[in-house]
Specification:
The structure is a single chain. Strand 2 and strand 3 form a beta hairpin. This protein has 2 domains: 153 residues, Lyase, Ornithine Decarboxylase, Chain A, domain 1; 178 residues, Alanine racemase (TIM Barrel), CATH 3.20.20. The chain has 12 helices and 22 strands. The protein is 30% helix and 25% strand. By secondary structure, the protein is of the alpha/beta class. This is Pyridoxal-dependent decarboxylase, exosortase A system-associated. Its cofactor is pyridoxal 5'-phosphate.
Length: 408
């Protein structure tokens, strides 16, 4: 999507972007320094309202805290969703601090330490088990604290999801127990002191195709119901994963959420309800919930020309927003939507490279971006920055100050 769409979404006043109802320069003064991430709570609420309207009523909504674990954001989202999914002891503490019932917090991710398992069991959190070895350690953790662990098996499916920005299932994976091994694990666990409530499948992320998501959800439900037939106790939890993406680049189109929701409604009524009428069925979303409500704001510190090319140098960069710079050059780099947030009025524009303050050519926020005349102290805004920003970036690289975060 073009930057103009995102400007319209947030709003503008007098040629200046507005975030959370606050003009950008006034917001920057409130924050006190740049760079910073700002998250618009009204846009966050709008996205959650859209999800509730499009998804079937029986489907429960989970928020993947890893997408944006800022405590204020998690506190706000927790009031509007049914589950919080965490991937570390720190995220678990952030989730529990919201007052969310421990039975509605799930803990996924490979490599959980024994200490983390003990903490999760003691708190009553649902542990999504990634391997047979982890299951063994979970049972021992339960014996250690005198609490029967609540668990679900994370399943590495026997299919892959095309179109996903990151594949997390199918073939060999560090995530989950291979689907063909799950019946044996269920049989072995029948006599162990663990409460196996159900299953979790997360096959891929950042998918913009409704057709591919419909196919993935169909295969996921088929697999989960097959496995539920092998369970040795009633299945009361099915996590379908997430995977719904957001449009980062100019030619990207948003997913047809209505179609995805209608298909999920059909699956739940025709397939899940007859087989497992009492099961909690969860769709776990992170990026789709929070990604489009955030901006990254940095300040221009220099404007220069080099052999005919214009360079706009800002005080931020890949140490705060790795994804926007292309993940250390490991992907084909494309520009996130970007504007000079205090110079939105139409006028003459020319190409510029927006670069950060780090000593590497990889520190590139925008390449050949059409920008107006830019001056020192102007504010550059990168959209689609609400997810996988500050906490997914190498903040200590070169020792610059961290980016602040604010929920407006």
């Amino acid at each position: 999507m073009r930057a103009e769409h995102h400007v319209a979404t947030f709003g503008a006043d007098g040629g200046e972007l507005v975030v959370g109802g606050v003009p950008l320069r006034r917001l920057a003064d409130r924050v006190g320094s740049t760079p910073f991430f700002a998250y618009d709570r009204s846009l966050l609420d709008r996205r959650l309202d859209e999800l509730r309207a499009a998804l079937p009523g029986r489907l429960q909504l989970g928020y993947a805290v890893k997408a944006n674990p800022m405590p204020a954001v998690v506190q706000h989202v927790a009031r509007r969703v049914d589950w919080l999914d965490v991937a570390s002891a720190h995220e678990m503490q952030v989730a529990l601090d919201t007052g969310t019932a421990t039975a509605r917090v799930s803990f996924a991710g490979p490599g959980k330490t024994t200490t983390e398992l003990v903490q999760a069991v003691a708190a009553g959190v649902l542990v999504e088990v990634e391997s047979v070895g982890e299951l063994d350690r979970l049972v021992l953790a339960g014996e250690r604290v005198g609490v029967r662990p609540r668990a679900a098996l994370r399943v590495n499916p026997d299919f892959a999801v095309r179109g996903s920005g990151m594949r997390m299932g199918g073939g060999p994976q560090q995530f989950g127990i291979d689907a063909e091994e799950v019946p044996g694990v269920l049989s072995d666990a029948a006599d162990r002191d663990v409460d196996l409530l159900g299953f979790h499948v997360f096959a891929g992320s950042q998918n913009l195709s409704a057709d591919l998501l419909v196919t993935a959800h169909t295969h996921t439900v088929e697999l989960l119901l097959r496995l539920a037939d092998k369970a040795t106790q009633p299945v009361t939890y099915l996590n379908l994963g997430g995977g719904i993406g957001i449009p980062y680049f100019e030619k990207d189109e948003p997913v047809d959420l209505a179609r995805v929701g209608a298909h999920l409604a059909d699956l739940l009524s025709a397939e899940v309800a007859p087989a497992l009428p009492d099961a909690d069925v969860v769709l776990e979303l992170g990026r789709y919930v929070v990604g489009e409500c955030g901006v990254y704001v940095s300040r221009v510190v220099d404007v220069k020309r080099s052999r005919g090319q214009r360079y706009v140098v800002v005080d931020g960069g890949l140490h705060h927003h790795l994804a926007a710079t292309g993940n250390f050059g490991q992907v084909i780099r494309r520009n996130y939507p970007l504007v000079v947030g205090d110079r939105l009025d139409p006028g003459a524009r020319e190409p510029a490279h927006v670069v950060g303050c780090l000593c590497t050519p990889l520190d590139l926020l925008g390449s050949d971006v059409e920008l107006p005349e830019v001056e020192v102290d102007d504010l550059v805004v990168v959209f689609q920055s609400g997810a996988y920003g500050a906490t997914a970036s190498p903040a200590d690289f070169l020792g610059h100050p961290p980016a602040r975060e604010v929920l407006v």
